[in-house]
Amino acid sequence: MGDSEAGDMAGADSAYPWLLPSAVADPRASGDGSRRTVRDWVVDICCLAVAGVVGLLVVESLRHDPHVSGPLLLADQLIGAAACTALWLRRRWPVGLAVVLVVLSVVAPCAAGAMLVAVFTVAVHRPFRVVAAVGGLALVTAPVSAAVRPDPDLTFIVSAVAGVVLALTVIGWGMFLRSRRQLVLSLRERARRAEAEAGLRAERAQRLAREDIAREMHDVLAHRLSLLCVHAGALEFRPDAPPAEVARAAGVIRDSAHQALQDLREVIGVLRAPGGGDGDEASRPQPTLAELDDLVEESRQAGMLVTFDGRVVDPRTVPPATGRTAYRIVQEALTNARKHAPGAEVTVRTAGDPRQGLTIEVVNPAGEEESGVVPGSGQGLIGLSERATLAGGRLAHGPTPDGGFRLHGWLPWRT
Question: Which of 156, 166, 303, 324 is most buried by its number of CB atoms within 10 A?
Fold first, then answer.
């Protein structure tokens, strides 16, 4: 009965969802026995068979008892058969059925097998308080039954002790199966939660990867595309320019487009690398502070007036992550100045050391020409603020009293 009953735990527990550790019930089971599964039928038949065998053994013992008359034996057999049949209701009313059978077994020994099955069912499917109450009643009635219907082959003490031992065995067995069942359900619930958490972590990783792609695409391509727009705009508004200038502008457009494609390949290669781009920062193919001079010169070749005041003694000593963040800040500031203040002189200042950190400042007055050369989404400064915060620094930006714009950032000098 134990193995079959243990295999029936899921179907039986579905009738009592409040017993499950996570209150997870099987929607197929209604608890009234009208929709039993194949396993339910097998378990119920096994329980009925066990109760019937015990009842037959008791009947056989009563046949040899001279104090038991024929009508009394027939009544015991009828009561035992009714008790076994009543086990069909053990899923629906386990506690009530167990109490009735415990009381009935006092005067009808043939119902002892059904009583043990009913008590076992309560031990498997009910909390400890209910099991203690029903089990206590079964333990109390064991010596009473031995006194009311004594066994001619056993003394009162032996008969009472045997009844108590049987009741304790059934109760302990049922509680053990219930605890094992709850452990299995708890492990399954924990596995489901772990799987759900893994799915959430995967979604978060995908979201962060998309954000990294968006940030890198903006940082890498906005600068190049703004250069393309400036030179293309010059060709559009100066169709009568000398052939040499047209050729030079076309060459800059070609080189900028080629460089933009190359930067795009590098960024995508980093993002596709194992580990999502994590690893040695110095090995990532992205610019650092040492390449800030090239960025300023590139902007000057595009027609911008840029004054660069670099006070870092050796830019190559700046940590790669810090230098890369500083490079992106200056790059975005130059791109914004080119878009919103064309013709204005831009001043770029960098200073710092390992003790004070790295300071970046980009200032430009109001533009001399009408802005709106290149459309923008307005997300670049937000992305720079997030980048600076992630690096442990800070970034401030806003208009100046003369109508210009100032961007000031500080980054820690982390090795």
Answer: 324
